[in-house]
Structure formats: C-alpha cells, structure tokens
Design goal:
Elements (H helix, E strand, L loop, with lengths): L1 H23 L11 H34 L3 H16 L5 E11 L20 H13 L4 E4 L2 E3 L6 E3 L2 E4 L2 E3 L3 E6 L2 H10 L1 H13 L2 E12 L42
Helix pairs in contact: 2-3, 4-5
C-alpha cells in the first residue's frame, strides 16, 4: 500500500509539473505586480508627444492654408469666414483678468471627525465639475484645468483619486483657471449649490478650497483633438451627499444635495 501511494503521488506531481510548464510556456505564471506609476508616466509622456505632433501638424496646415489663400479667392473667403470661430472653439490664446480656484484632498494624518469615511476626504469628479460649471455660468471666456485648455468637448473624469482630462492623468491639487469678469465669476461660485456643498466638506473635514484673483493671465490655445467620439446626456447629475459628521455643519439656505458619488 505504501509503495502504491508513493507511486501515485509521483505520477500526480509529474502531471502537475507538466501542466504548469505547458501553461507557462517558459514565462512566470505569477507575474510581478505592474509598476502602475511608471505606466502612468509613460502613457502621459506618449500623450504629450502626440499633442506636440498635433500642434506641429496644425501649424503646418495653417501655413499651407495661408499659402493657398494667397492665390485663391475662394480659400481666402473660407479662411476669413472661419477665423471668428477659432476663439469660440478655444483655438486661440486668451489673456485677461482671471480667477484661479484650487481644490485639494484633506491633509493626510489630520484628525478625522466621527462618522467620516475615507471617501469624504478626497476631491471627486463632481466637485471639479461644480466649479467648472459655475465659472462658465459666471461668464468665463476661457478656462484651463491643470495645464490644458477646457473646450466644449472636454470631459472631466475621475478614476479613483486621479483626474483624467483628454488622455492625461493628474493628481490633486486640481487648479481651474478662468478668464473673464472676475466679480461675476466669484458671484457664480458663491451662488452655486454644488460648490456650497463642497465648501461644507471644506469646513467639516478639511478639504482644500482657495480662490485667487489675478489682474492678467494668459491661457494658451487648445492643442488636442477636436473629434467628438463619445457623448451622452446623463439621466441625473451626480453630486455629493451632505458630510456625515457629528455634529454636521448646517447647510446654507436654499442648497440641496443632488446625490452621492
């Protein structure tokens, strides 16, 4: 019985080793954990290289258009017709008085009020969107998020604690710069219920929120792709829930949460 058992174990081990070798095909069955930071950096570098390529091609197209327009009445007419649309599309640099709004996560290691979850201590997608929407409603003529111009096709998306904008990944703090009537944009921020709700979290859990005025700033032209590949209207916009702290800070009159992220 003992000899038969040993033989059976050896046969089973041989089958196991053979199956593993066939499956692995000379590679590791359990690969090391991927370097996510390195992957993000390499992808950002790749996107930046493509953006520079797009800028170079766009400059070449502009130069070729000007050269052809010099000898064609029709091309010159079309060029003049499209020229006023460039600013509205974000394809020209803009200078003027500006507001700079900065959103940041709560400081690490700071005391956390009772009832607060880790998810309450970070900036969410709807928080960035709330500021962006308020500034647009306040008459912003041009806007920049981090180091990129925001245009009508720009989508603000967050994955975990990172922001993805036009293929590039950013970590907080998130900086939104808007050029326009500074007083009107400030009033729009103050009037926004979503921004007011975010400020409740600022007071309750220490999220970062600063608004600075600049007499003159210059925003570069948008340099990314103008193709619109995906678009849909959400059934209901997402929003923050009131901060679950004890005691909870009073909500400003007239403000109402729109849901939870």
């Amino acid at each position: 019985m003992g000899t038969a058992g040993v033989a059976a174990a050896l046969v089973a081990a041989g089958l196991l080793f053979t199956t593993s070798a066939h499956t692995a095909r000379g590679t590791q069955l359990r690969a090391d954990r991927p370097d996510l930071v390195g992957l993000i950096r390499s992808e950002n570098a790749r996107v930046e290289a493509r953006v520079r390529r797009v800028e170079a091609l766009r400059a070449q197209v502009d130069a070729d258009t000007m050269a052809v327009a010099a000898g064609s009445v029709e091309v010159e007419r079309l060029r003049r017709t499209g020229q006023p649309l460039l600013a509205a599309a974000g394809l020209t640099p803009v200078s003027g008085p500006a507001l700079v709004v900065t959103l940041d996560d709560a400081p690490r290691g700071a005391p956390v009020p009772q009832g607060v979850k880790p998810d309450d201590l970070v900036v969410h997608q709807q928080d960035v969107q709330a500021v962006v929407n308020a500034l647009w409603s306040g008459g912003a003529e041009a806007m920049m998020l981090q180091d990129q111009r925001v245009i009508s096709t720009s989508a603000v998306r967050c994955v975990g604690n990172t922001l993805i904008l036009q293929g590039r990944v950013y970590s907080p703090p998130y900086v939104i710069t808007a050029i326009g009537d500074v007083a009107r944009m400030r009033a729009a921020l103050e009037a926004s219920p979503d921004v007011a709700l975010y400020r409740e979290y600022v007071a309750a859990v220490g999220l970062g929120y600063t608004v600075r005025t600049h007499r003159t700033l210059r925003l570069p032209a948008f340099a990314g792709s103008l193709d619109l590949r995906y678009a849909h209207t959400p059934d209901q916009p997402a929003g923050r829930a009131p901060p679950a702290v004890s005691p909870a800070p009073p909500a400003p009159p007239g403000s109402a949460p729109t849901g939870s992220s």
